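Hey, quick one: can you model this chain's 3D structure?
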Amino acid sequence: MPILTEPTVAVHRSFLAAWDEAGPEHERWMGARTIAGDEEEEWSRDQAEDPGEFARLIEVIRTEADPETELAPDLVHQTVLWFVDGPEWLGRLSIRHRLTPALEELGGHIGYFVRPSYRRKGYATEMLAQSLPFAARLGIDPALLTCDTDNLPSRRVIEAAGGELEDERHGKLRFWVPTRTS
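Sure thing. Here's the predicted structure for all 182 residues.
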């Protein structure tokens, strides 16, 4: 059964295949850049192919969750989790530890991406469900999730997790999802 886990080198080959599938329009979801430190750092597909660079990419992604890691004033710490099934990289999920005004309007606490060849299998629903205890441990309850007004599949995922529609802003639907089960 697929699980959400910290990024791992065990899925290196599959991650690269997913990057190829996702294409340039979804490159940001592959996590090939970091927000940590003074300057953003980006990895190209060719760089990520090198096992040492891939391991470094993972380490830098993990630092984004550490409250001691310095970020630009308009950015927030985030926990990045990968959805994997053994050696297969199926998707990525980010839990932003707090909301900025921009995230409150457009981005929310949680964002997710499912590898194109694994869509329509219920994985987004499972990823979101598995992420809620992580969010709760970060003190987030409820979590804000947003989706485009015309993105019916994402709306269904959020509603399946108990999301309550608050409103629409700037072409985005805004839902509050409880993270605690009791």
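One thing worth noting: Residues 82 and 138 are 17 Å apart (CA to CA).
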